[in-house]
Amino acid sequence: MSQNPPDLRPDLAPKATLDGTRRPGQPTIGMVSLGCPKALVDSERILTRLRAEGYGVSPDYSGADAVIVNTCGFLDSAKAESLEAIGEALDENGRVIVTGCLGAEPDYITGAHPKVLAVTGPHQYEQVLDAVHAAVPPDPDPFVDLLPARSVSLTPRHFSYLKISEGCNHKCKFCIIPDMRGRLQSRPAHAVVREAERLVEAGVKELLVISQDTSAYGVDIKHAEERGHRAHITDLARDLGSLGAWTRLHYVYPYPHVRELIPLIAEELVLPYLDIPFQHAHTDTLRRMARPAAAERTLDRIAEWRSICPEITLRSTFIVGYPGETEEEFQTLLDWMDEAQLDRVGCFQYENVEGARSNALPDHVATEVKQERWDRFMEKAQAISAAKLAAKVGQRMDVIVDEVDAEAATCRTKADAPEIDGNLFVDEGFEDLRPGDIVTVEVDEAGEYDLWGRLVN
């Protein structure tokens, strides 16, 4: 049992979970998956293709004939983490194939690690497979391996990420995702729904909808309708909500049409949870970011959403210390937080990222000032979180069980996404619970980020 730390990075996916079953002589691949949930989905797709070709999947370096490292390249700190992971894989295994966002800069990788076998960019599945074939030729057992493969999941069996699009049409100055992953490319709605149906049929209890811009889903394909499903986020939410699993929406930009989702939330078709990347609140800061400079309208929208669905949980991320951010602009953000009263909040200190247009902006903020503002921001967010959680004491709510150990069952409420939000712990009478169970609890204690409760018979 572990409590949710207050500075957990909100861009990280849960750690990959692998089993090590293999037949004698089976070629086996290891996978290190870094970065966001979208990258985790890419890793799952690569391993699913390899499993269909007869490869085994190893949970450790020693059992793998080669290792794929799926990298993150969003921040300089993430690039450093990726290089470190590549180096570790080379030291422990020696045969390493690199893919993912940092793979868009192959010279950067080979300059640090010239012994890697191959480098491919993000969602270049065929190139990854070609590199694996060259390094570890397939040797399938035709009676066992060459059968339709069940999708490989790197998350616990009871929840799964559902990626609905690639890329992004925004041109935020601090972000290089469009350069690495391209413009918005939405999946056909019928394909998304069919994947969700298969996941639910396999026992998934929670679908976590992800993309770079979930609100814009279908814009690039003119909200095409095919096989009875329309590529629009409202229609997709309704379709997914009909499958009986919890449906959680991530990365929802606050466009006006997001209002159409709120009645679906009120009807409990999708979870009362929206993950919205506001980034800042001061008009001038947002303009320098090349974000829609409409913080006042955002507050009006939040008030409207809560009037329709009072129990809605709002999560967001913010950047402090952006180039040119004055003390007045930062104070506006703190004041906005007081008024918005967001339920779940993550925060980054601004970093230069190679290739980002924000690097060229004047008046970069000193490191010690960024740290001081981050501390003040998190103190504010922590106080808001503690007050909101304290108000839940005495309430009854459904929770999903993530893990059970000797001390307690670690659960999540509908207001909590895996890894990035808080937990609810049941430390009495939990012995018969299993991961994936959905049970009713009564909250009897609250902390700054987590809750404790007892089972209701």
TrEMBL record:
<dbReference type="GO" id="GO:0005829">
    <property type="term" value="C:cytosol"/>
</dbReference>
<dbReference type="InterPro" id="IPR023404">
    <property type="entry name" value="rSAM_horseshoe"/>
</dbReference>
<feature type="binding site">
    <location>
        <position position="36"/>
    </location>
    <ligand>
        <name>[4Fe-4S] cluster 1</name>
    </ligand>
</feature>
<dbReference type="InterPro" id="IPR005839">
    <property type="entry name" value="Methylthiotransferase"/>
</dbReference>
<feature type="binding site">
    <location>
        <position position="175"/>
    </location>
    <ligand>
        <name>[4Fe-4S] cluster 2</name>
    </ligand>
</feature>
<dbReference type="InterPro" id="IPR038135">
    <property type="entry name" value="Methylthiotransferase_N_sf"/>
</dbReference>
<keyword id="KW-0004">4Fe-4S</keyword>
<protein>
    <recommendedName>
        <fullName>Ribosomal protein uS12 methylthiotransferase RimO</fullName>
        <ecNumber>2.8.4.4</ecNumber>
    </recommendedName>
</protein>
<keyword id="KW-0479">Metal-binding</keyword>
<dbReference type="GO" id="GO:0035599">
    <property type="term" value="F:aspartic acid methylthiotransferase activity"/>
</dbReference>
<feature type="region of interest" description="Disordered">
    <location>
        <begin position="1"/>
        <end position="29"/>
    </location>
</feature>
<keyword id="KW-0949">S-adenosyl-L-methionine</keyword>
<dbReference type="GO" id="GO:0051539">
    <property type="term" value="F:4 iron, 4 sulfur cluster binding"/>
</dbReference>
<feature type="binding site">
    <location>
        <position position="72"/>
    </location>
    <ligand>
        <name>[4Fe-4S] cluster 1</name>
    </ligand>
</feature>
<comment type="function">
    <text>Catalyzes the methylthiolation of an aspartic acid residue of ribosomal protein uS12.</text>
</comment>
<dbReference type="Pfam" id="PF18693">
    <property type="entry name" value="TRAM_2"/>
</dbReference>
<dbReference type="GO" id="GO:0103039">
    <property type="term" value="F:protein methylthiotransferase activity"/>
</dbReference>
<dbReference type="GO" id="GO:0005840">
    <property type="term" value="C:ribosome"/>
</dbReference>
<comment type="similarity">
    <text>Belongs to the methylthiotransferase family. RimO subfamily.</text>
</comment>
<dbReference type="InterPro" id="IPR006638">
    <property type="entry name" value="Elp3/MiaA/NifB-like_rSAM"/>
</dbReference>
<dbReference type="Pfam" id="PF00919">
    <property type="entry name" value="UPF0004"/>
</dbReference>
<dbReference type="InterPro" id="IPR002792">
    <property type="entry name" value="TRAM_dom"/>
</dbReference>
<keyword id="KW-0411">Iron-sulfur</keyword>
<keyword id="KW-0689">Ribosomal protein</keyword>
<dbReference type="InterPro" id="IPR058240">
    <property type="entry name" value="rSAM_sf"/>
</dbReference>
<dbReference type="InterPro" id="IPR012340">
    <property type="entry name" value="NA-bd_OB-fold"/>
</dbReference>
<keyword id="KW-0963">Cytoplasm</keyword>
<keyword id="KW-0687">Ribonucleoprotein</keyword>
<dbReference type="GO" id="GO:0006400">
    <property type="term" value="P:tRNA modification"/>
</dbReference>
<feature type="binding site">
    <location>
        <position position="168"/>
    </location>
    <ligand>
        <name>[4Fe-4S] cluster 2</name>
    </ligand>
</feature>
<dbReference type="Pfam" id="PF04055">
    <property type="entry name" value="Radical_SAM"/>
</dbReference>
<dbReference type="InterPro" id="IPR005840">
    <property type="entry name" value="Ribosomal_uS12_MeSTrfase_RimO"/>
</dbReference>
<feature type="binding site">
    <location>
        <position position="101"/>
    </location>
    <ligand>
        <name>[4Fe-4S] cluster 1</name>
    </ligand>
</feature>
<dbReference type="InterPro" id="IPR007197">
    <property type="entry name" value="rSAM"/>
</dbReference>
<keyword id="KW-0808">Transferase</keyword>
<feature type="domain" description="Radical SAM core">
    <location>
        <begin position="154"/>
        <end position="387"/>
    </location>
</feature>
<feature type="domain" description="TRAM">
    <location>
        <begin position="390"/>
        <end position="457"/>
    </location>
</feature>
<dbReference type="InterPro" id="IPR013848">
    <property type="entry name" value="Methylthiotransferase_N"/>
</dbReference>
<feature type="binding site">
    <location>
        <position position="172"/>
    </location>
    <ligand>
        <name>[4Fe-4S] cluster 2</name>
    </ligand>
</feature>
<feature type="domain" description="MTTase N-terminal">
    <location>
        <begin position="27"/>
        <end position="137"/>
    </location>
</feature>
<keyword id="KW-0408">Iron</keyword>
<dbReference type="GO" id="GO:0046872">
    <property type="term" value="F:metal ion binding"/>
</dbReference>
